[in-house]
Structure formats: structure tokens, C-alpha cells
Amino acid sequence: MTQEPAHTIHVDGEWRAAEGGATFPVTDPATGEVIGRASDGDRADTAAAIAAAERALPAWSGATAYERAAVLARADALMRERRRDLAALMTREQGKPLKAAMNEVAYAADFLAWFAEEAKRVGGVTIPSARADQRFVTMRQAVGVVAAITPWNYPISMLTRKLAPAVAAGCTSVLKPAEQTPLCAVATVQLLVDAGLPAGVVNLVTTSRPAEVGDELLDSPVVRKLTFTGSTAVGKVLVARAGATLKRVSVELGGHAPFIVFGDADPVRAAKGAALVKFLNTGQACISPNRIYVHRSLYDTFVATLEQRIAALRVGRGDQEGISIGPLIDERAVAKMAAQVDDARTRGARVVAGGERLQVEGLGGTTFFSPTLLADVTPDMLVSREETFGPIAAVTPFDDEDEVVARANDTEYGLAAYVYTNDLSTAIRVTEKLRFGMVGVNDINPTSAAAPFGGVKASGLGREGGYEGIDEYLDTKLVGIAT
Ligand code: NAD
């Protein structure tokens, strides 16, 4: 990286300090150590970034699709070259195990590669007219200046999932990353610069004051599009505020995924799958299975297998060999885990494994929580009602398909769902009835840069990745031509 750590604001191709000179600390959640400082941007910095994006828009939206694609293709190659360094930074700043960080960087690069190709496929259509002397054609054009607001849990891939289609479509952007992970954003923007992205096309405002920067982005009539990934609570506030200037919006919000194991499934395979996806990123994933429903005939085998898998998980600092569970992001997250476990225990759940805060020997981090298995969970428990976002697997037996589908749908959220069955009819019938944006059938990872990611209901609006991903950054213009 070429810039000082406290020059983490990127405007018009220049790395700079916040106009007010303020900085904020960035910590390693595993050790509690301060690993760097970021510039604490405010409204003035944000206004400067918006102005830079506005100035860069005519040239970038006027560049050929092939020029835009070439930048993204170079960025993809650079990200794969820098994979190890980016992953190491991510592990320090966010806490996830190095192997998971390596996987995330590859996933992040996939969006650069995918949208490098999609840039070249933005075309319109011709439409027959009812009049003999008229022709219709459509053009698809860049929406304009984009505000991108991203979370800490996937601190690089959530950036490329937004910036790559924006760049491909010819938009210019102002990125505001999460205050917990500004350094990953700095490294990502530097990579785009090194790939040849012209000044002003992607601007970055790091800040510890998200509402202040967010308000400037949302109130600006220059910003034509909001793309946000984060909690449902914040997403609702931002969408409402974006309404005042009628911005395009796409928001990827919280989830509360059901994981249903039918009586004909292999309970051992299903439990292994549940263990893998549940504890990924220490449970801090929007598609994490929060409510595991297992047919009563398989229940004991499933719970016993999951218990064994959990016993094999090692908690610690993500850069150490064999670690699969890192720290949670902060104290608030640990308090939420403790509250969900206490509530479940009081209401009659069995704590089969874990359930406690952990202090890992030799590490100063205070946000470790043991991987937890709760059995006999009921719908009234907090863990059934609110997004967990941590390492708690909550398991409930069921008897009947209609009952389990009703329970699975009994949530305001609608992001991911999982179904385990060997019966094709059950798979199709149940998938059709689940009110979720993504369903994994005997599959714990229904995600790819090539596939549309997104939710329904309180899980969001719009899709990222896939053929749909670039549409969010394009407006359709109709041209009627009299002949
Ligand atoms: P969060 O909503 O607290 O923060 C997300 C982003 O919003 C951060 O950059 C934060 O600084 C910013 N922010 C907060 N208040 C703001 C305001 N008033 N104005 C402007 N920006 C503001 O969420 P989080 O805790 O960082 O992330 C976890 C949440 O994200 C979970 O609910 C998770 O399910 C969700 N998530 C969803 C997806 C998805 O694709 N659906 C992916 C990852 C995470």
C-alpha cells in the first residue's frame, strides 16, 4: 500500500486525510490490539467524494464497454495475485480464519471477473410498433453516481459485489465501508487504482460516523443510486431517506435461514453440512442457518453428529493453523449470544455443547464465544425469533411437512433457506412454498458471482451477481423513431 494508514480517504484519485484531521483506531478482534488508524471522514469529505464522482461520470460512462471490462479484468488478476496478503489483512482486521479469508478473496475476485464479461453484454432491444412509420429501440445507460455502503462481515467481497457491476455499467461511486474494516476497503480501492481505474470513478470515505456520511450521501440529489448491505434496521432507515430524492435502491439485509432435514435424508450428511455452513465466519453470515428443523425420526442421529462436529472445531486467532472459529466482531455480538443462550435455557432448550464466553489462552481478545448446540428449541425462544449472527446452532424436531414449512416461513426475513431430502417431489414442492430468495437443496452454498443473490420481505430488495446484478446500475431509455 502506498498511502499512510491515516490517509484512507480516496477522492479524485488522491489518498488523503479527513478534512477535519480526525482518525479512528482499527483493532484486531482476536487480540484487542490496535493495528492501524483510519481517517475519520465527515460530511465535507463525503461532499468532496460525491463531487469527484460527478466529475468523473461523463468520461467513465462514455468509455467503451471494452475499456471498462479491461480494468475489471486487470483488477481480477491483481486480486488473485494479492490473495494471500489481502486474506492476511482480513484475518487481522475482521478475525475470520485465514482459509476462510482466502476463500472470500477468491469469491471477491469472481465478481470482478464476472462483471468484466457482463460489461460487454449491456445491450438494448428493438420493439415492434403498432404504427408503420415508427420504430422503437431501447438503450441501457449508467444510473449515475452510486453510494455503496458495506458491512464488516465480508469486508472485501461485499465491496466487489457492488463496485464491479457499478464500474462495468459506467457508473461512478462513493464507497462507505463499515467502521470495523476500513483497511480492507483501502486495499480493495488501491487494487482498482493499480488496475488502471481512472481518478474519481471509485471514491472512498472511511469514517467512524456512519450516519453523518450516510446522510450526506442520501440527501445529495447527485447520488442516483443506493446499494447497501447490512442490517434490516439500518436498511429500512436508508431506503426511507433515499425516497426523498427518489434514488434507485438495492439493499441486502438480514436473514434468519431455516435448514430443514426431511425424514428420507441422510442425517449424517445433513449434520455435516449444517456444521460447515452454520459456523462459517463464526456464524456471522446473512445466509447462516439459524433455525434447524429435523424430522423426528432422524433427530437423535442428527444432534449426535452435529455435537461431534462441533467438538472438533477449534477456536482462536484466525492466522493460526487448524483454527475454524475466530472471534466475534465486538462485545455487543457476544452479549447477544449470551442472551439467546440464557433465554433458550430458561425456556427449556438443552445446551448440548458450548453456550459460554471463552477466553483463549495467550490472546487479549474478549469476544470469543464457544460453538454452541441448542436442542429442543421452540418457536417462542429468542433464538427462533431474531437473527443470531453468531456460532449458535438451534435444532428443533418436526413431524410433518406443512408444519415445518409454516414454521420456516414464520419470520419477517426471506434470504436463504436449506432443504435436505432425497425425494425430488419433496424438494420441488417445498422449495416452491418457501418464501426466501435462495434455496439450497442438499447444498450448503447456493452462492456464486454467476448467480443472483438476494432476499424477499425484510431481507431486501434487488439482486447482486448473476445476469441481474448489473441491471441495478442501469436505466432503460426508450427511443421512438418516426421513419
Ligand atoms: P449494520 O447495518 O450495522 O452496518 C452496515 C453498514 O451500514 C456499515 O457500513 C455501517 O457503518 C453502516 N451504517 C450504519 N448506520 C448507518 C446510517 N445511519 N447511515 C449510513 N450508514 C450506516 O450491519 P452490520 O452489523 O455491519 O452487518 C451485519 C448485518 O448485515 C446482518 O444483519 C447481516 O445479515 C447483514 N448482511 C446481509 C448480507 C446480504 O447480502 N443480505 C450480507 C452480509 C451481511
Task: Describe the fold and architecture.
It is a single chain. By secondary structure, the protein is α/β, with parallel strands linked by helices. The protein has two domains: 9-254 and 459-482, 3-Layer(aba) Sandwich (Aldehyde Dehydrogenase, Chain A, domain 1); 257-412 and 416-447, Aldehyde Dehydrogenase, Chain A, domain 2 (3-Layer(aba) Sandwich). Helix content is 38%, strand content 22%. The protein contains 14 helices and 22 strands. The protein has helices at 43-62, 65-81, 83-94, 98-118, 157-169, 182-194, 210-219, 232-242, 267-279, 299-311, 331-346, 382-385, 401-409, 424-433; strands at residues 9-11, 14-16, 23-27, 34-39, 126-127, 134-142, 145-149, 172-176, 202-204, 223-229, 248-252, 257-261, 289-295, 350-353, 357-358, 368-369, 372-375, 392-398, 416-420, 438-441, 460-461, 474-482. The strands form six sheets. A seven-stranded mixed β-sheet has the order 14-17-18-13-12-19-20, sandwiched between helices. Strands 9-8-7-10-11-21 form a six-stranded mixed β-sheet, with helices on both faces. The radius of gyration is 23 Å and the shape is globular. 53% of the residues are buried. The model has no long low-confidence stretch (mean pLDDT 97). It binds nicotinamide-adenine-dinucleotide. Nicotinamide-adenine-dinucleotide binds at residues 149-154, 176-179, 210-211, 214, 229-231, 234, 237-238, 252-255, 286, 387, 389, 415, 455, 460. Residues 149-154, 176-179, 210-211, 214, 229-231, 234, 237-238, 252-255, 286, 387, 389, 415, 455, 460 line the site of nicotinamide-adenine-dinucleotide.
